[in-house]
Specification:
Layout lengths: L3 H4 L7 H24 L4 H24 L4 H21 L5 H40 L6 H29 L3 H4 L2 H26 L8 H8 L4 H32 L16 H36 L15 H19 L35 H18 L12 H21 L5 H21 L3 H17 L9 H18 L5
Helix pairs in contact: 2-4, 3-4, 3-5, 4-5, 5-6, 5-8, 6-8, 6-10, 8-10, 8-11, 9-11, 10-11, 10-12, 11-12, 11-14, 12-14, 12-15, 13-16, 14-16, 15-16
C-alpha cells in the first residue's frame, strides 16, 4: 500500500477514495497472510514491515497537524489507522500492532493538542497586530476599541472552540482514543497552564518589553514608540484584566465540567491547571502594562518639556508678550491621552475634588501666591521672602496627597500622567537660572495652564499645589523674582484665550 493512499483519506467527503484505500489495505493484509503461509520464517520481516507502515501513517498524520487539520479530519485519520491495525492484527498477532499503535497515537494526540494551543496563541497575536496595521493605514476610526474587542474574542472564543474540539477527542468511542482519555485530560489542563504562560510572554513582546529585560530598559524603549504603540500597551493592560476577571473563570468552569475527572498525573505533582496562579500572573501583568503606558506617555511629554526649558537662554529672556506655544503642545498631548483612555477605560465614580477655604486655599486667583500684594513690591528680597512664606504656609495647611494608586479608570490614568508631568516640569525649572522676564514668562504659562488642567484633572487641589510648586521653584532660581501685575497677567491670558477661540471656533 502506498502512503499517499492515506493522505487522500483526510477529506472524508470522498467515499470513493476511502473505499479505494480500504480495498488496497485488504489486499495488503491478504498478501501478508499468504506470505507467512508460504514463507514460515518470514514473521520477523513481516512484523518490521507492518510496524513501519503504521509508523509511516502516523508521520503523515503529523504533517496534517502542522497544516491546522480540523478535529473531524484528525479523528478520521486516526480511525483509518486504527481500522488498518485491527485488520492486520488478525493475521499478524506477533507484531502486537494495537500496543504499537497506542504508543504512536499517544504522541500524535499530544502533538495535536499542543498544536491547537500554538495556533490559538498565533491567532491572538494576529488579532492585535492586524488592528494596529489597519490603524496605521487609516482604515479604523477607533483602533484601540477594535483591538481590545478582537483580543478578547480571540482569547475567550478561541479557548471555547478549543475546548469543544478537545471534548470531541474525549467523547469519541474509538477504542484507541478511549484508552487515551485520562492522558487527554492531563494534556488539556497542562496545555492551558502552559498556554497562558506563553501568552504573557507574547503580550510582553507586543509591548516592546521582554521578561529578561529590566524595567528601566522597557521604559526607555517605550519612550521611543509612537502614540499608537503606546495605546496598544493600554490595550494589553485591559486585555490582562479581561483574562483575569472573565476568560480564566469561564475556562475554569469548562475544564472543571469536562476535563477534571480521571487523569494519570501523580498526586505529588499537584493539579496541572491552576487558575489562581493564572489570575495572579495577569493581574500583575495588567498593572505593569498600565504603568508602562503611563511611563511612555509621561516621557513623551517630558521630552517636550525638556526641550522647552533647555533651549532658550533664560538669563537673557525678553519680557513676556504671550503664552508660549509649548503650552499648546502640552495640552495637545493630554488631549490625545484622553482620547485613548476614553476608548478603553471606564469613567471613574468620584466627582471633582475641589479645594475649599477650610484647607487654606481656594480655586480663585487668591490661591496663587503670586497674586499677593506683597509680591508686587519692588524690594526683591521681601518679594522672595513673601513667596517662600506663602509656600511654607501652604505645606502646613494643606494635606495634599499627590500620588495615589492608579486605577483602571479614565480619570485615574490622566490624573497620574498630569501629576508626573508637572513634577517633571518642576525639576526642569530648578535646573535653570532666570532673569525677571524669564520668571514672569513661567508665571504666565503656568497661570494659563490652571484652567485647562482643572478641566482635565478631577483633583483641583493637587493641580493648584503642583503648579504653585513650579512657580516657587522658578522664584528660587531667579535673581529678581518680581511677578507680573495681576491686570497684565489677566490681559495676556485673555488674549491667548481669544486667539484660541478664533483658531478653533465652536460649531453651532
Amino acid at each position: 500500500m502506498e502512503s499517499s493512499d492515506l493522505t487522500k483519506q483526510e477529506n472524508n467527503s470522498k467515499p470513493v477514495l476511502a473505499t479505494k484505500h480500504e480495498a488496497s489495505f485488504c489486499e495488503f493484509t491478504e498478501a501478508v497472510r499468504a506470505y507467512r503461509v508460504i514463507f514460515q520464517d518470514s514473521v520477523e520481516q513481516l512484523v518490521k514491515l507492518s510496524q513501519g507502515l503504521i509508523a509511516k501513517n502516523f508521520e503523515i498524520s503529523e504533517q496534517y497537524i502542522k497544516k491546522k487539520i480540523s478535529v473531524a479530519n484528525f479523528l478520521g485519520v486516526i480511525r483509518i489507522i486504527w481500522k488498518d491495525v485491527l485488520l492486520l492484527d488478525e493475521v499478524l498477532l506477533e507484531a502486537f500492532l494495537p500496543d504499537y499503535c497506542l504508543q504512536a497515537a499517544q504522541a500524535a494526540v499530544k502533538q495535536y493538542i499542543a498544536s491547537k494551543f500554538s495556533h490559538l496563541l498565533h491567532n491572538i497575536s494576529d488579532a492585535l497586530t492586524n488592528v494596529h496595521v489597519r490603524h496605521n493605514e487609516g482604515m479604523e476610526e477607533h483602533p484601540l476599541q477594535i483591538a481590545l474587542k478582537a483580543g478578547k474574542t480571540a482569547v475567550l472564543q478561541g479557548s471555547m472552540d478549543l475546548l469543544l474540539d478537545f471534548r470531541k477527542l474525549l467523547d469519541d468511542d474509538l477504542g484507541l482514543l478511549v484508552k487515551l482519555r485520562d492522558l487527554v485530560t492531563d494534556w488539556v489542563q497542562e496545555g492551558f497552564q502552559d498556554f497562558f504562560k506563553a501568552l504573557e510572554d507574547r503580550l510582553l513582546v507586543h509591548s516592546g518589553r521582554n521578561r529578561s529585560g529590566s524595567q528601566e530598559q522597557g521604559i526607555t524603549e517605550g519612550a521611543q514608540v509612537d502614540k499608537v504603540a503606546a495605546g496598544l500597551v493600554l490595550v494589553l493592560a485591559q486585555l490582562c484584566v479581561f483574562i483575569e476577571q472573565t476568560a480564566t473563570p469561564r475556562i475554569t468552569e469548562e475544564v472543571a465540567a469536562f476535563f477534571s475527572s480521571g487523569g494519570v498525573r501523580s498526586y505529588e505533582n499537584g493539579p496541572a491547571f491552576v487558575p489562581g496562579e493564572i489570575c495572579r500572573v495577569f493581574r500583575s501583568a495588567g498593572e505593569k502594562f498600565l504603568q508602562q503606558y503611563i511611563n511612555v506617555r509621561t516621557q513623551r511629554i517630558s521630552v517636550l518639556l525638556k526641550k522647552r526649558f533647555t533651549t532658550p537662554n533664560w538669563f537673557k529672556h525678553k519680557e513676556p508678550r504671550e503664552v508660549h506655544m509649548f503650552v499648546d503642545l502640552f495640552l495637545q498631548e493630554l488631549e490625545a491621552i484622553g482620547a485613548e483612555v476614553k476608548q478603553l477605560l471606564p469613567p471613574g465614580v468620584l466627582g471633582k475634588h475641589r479645594r475649599t477655604e477650610s484647607n487654606g486655599s481656594t480655586a480663585s486667583s487668591r490661591s496663587n501666591p503670586l497674586r499677593d500684594d506683597t509680591m508686587s513690591r519692588s524690594n526683591t528680597q521681601r518679594a522672595r521672602s513673601q513667596l517662600l512664606e506663602t509656600h511654607l504656609a501652604k505645606l502646613f495647611k494643606q494635606k495634599v496627597e499627590i500620588f495615589t494608586k492608579t486605577e483602571y479608570t479614565q480619570e485615574s490614568v490622566v490624573n497620574t500622567i498630569v501629576k508626573l508631568c508637572l513634577k517633571s516640569l518642576q525639576e526642569f525649572v530648578r535646573l535653570q537660572t532666570f532673569n525677571r522676564s524669564g520668571f514672569q514668562q513661567i508665571q504666565l504659562d503656568i497661570q494659563f495652564l490652571r484652567g485647562p488642567l482643572k478641566e482635565i484633572v478631577d483633583d483641583e487641589a493637587t493641580i493648584d499645589f503642583l503648579l504653585d510648586e513650579v512657580i516657587v521653584g522658578a522664584s528660587e532660581r531667579c535673581l529678581d523674582p518680581i511677578p507680573l501685575e495681576p491686570p497684565i497677567l489677566d490681559k495676556l491670558i485673555q488674549a491667548k484665550l481669544a486667539k484660541a477661540k478664533e483658531q478653533n471656533p465652536v460649531s453651532p
